[in-house]
């Protein structure tokens, strides 16, 4: 379901966006050629611990949550990104299945979302100011100046949104972390329009429950 919805988003870009789409395709191809995703924490590795605030005011400790069971971590660009919103919304729909399987779900972005969004989705939206945690996970990259100008013309000013001076973002990434803080599943994609199947994430969580 998520794959089809994301594909529909691509086809529904407004008129005059072909130049933007072409330039973004080039940017993604460059990230792929430079193997930027190869720097990220990979499956089988111990993931960096962290404590981050949620938009609802709570503090989320990865170490504390993994003591309870598997943790699903989603790194996303921000609530200004329609692809991210689609992914988070679908994750909210499937949240009961993840919880029933003993997993905790959390999503991480450099800018704070509105508390109402966290309430509606049902899982923590964590604020990673300055991409500190994303950097620990090897996920950060810098948007080229010409693409930044295109974003600004669309009303997306990342330094203003993220409260920083730079145009850095995390790669779209999905992790399932076990009780030992080992990544039992990791998908990192330089193409932010591609997102992992939530059924795949749920299958990993259920498999970890069977092992336990």
The gist of it:
The chain has 212 residues and is α/β, with parallel strands linked by helices.
Describe the structure.
The structure is a single chain. By secondary structure, this protein is α/β, with parallel strands linked by helices. It has helices at residues 2-11, 18-33, 62-66, 82-100, 115-121, 132-136, 145-153, 158-162, 198-211, and strands at 51-53, 59-61, 71-75, 104-109, 125-127, 140-142, 168-170, 172-177, 183-189. It has a single domain (2-11, 41-139, 168-211), classed as Glutaredoxin (3-Layer(aba) Sandwich), CATH 3.40.30.10. Strands 5-4-3-8-9 form a 5-stranded mixed β-sheet. The protein has a two-stranded antiparallel sheet with strand order 1-2. It has a two-stranded antiparallel sheet with strand order 6-7. Helix 1 (2-11) packs antiparallel against helix 4 (82-100) and helix 4 packs parallel to helix 9 (198-211).
Question: How would the blueprint of this fold be written?
Answer:
Blueprint: H1 2-11, H2 18-33, E1 51-53, E2 59-61, H3 62-66, E3 71-75, H4 82-100, E4 104-109, H5 115-121, E5 125-127, H6 132-136, E6 140-142, H7 145-153, H8 158-162, E7 168-170, E8 172-177, E9 183-189, H9 198-211
Parallel strand pairs: 3-4, 4-5
Antiparallel strand pairs: 1-2, 3-8, 6-7, 8-9
Q: Measured on Cα atoms, how large is the radius of gyration?
A: 17 Å
Mean pLDDT: 89
CATH topology descriptor: Glutaredoxin
The helix-strand sequence is HHEEHEHEHEHEHHEEEH
Question: Within the largest sheet, what's the order of strands?
Answer: 5-4-3-8-9
Domain unit count:
1
* Strand tally: 9
Which band does the percent of strand residues land in? 15-25%
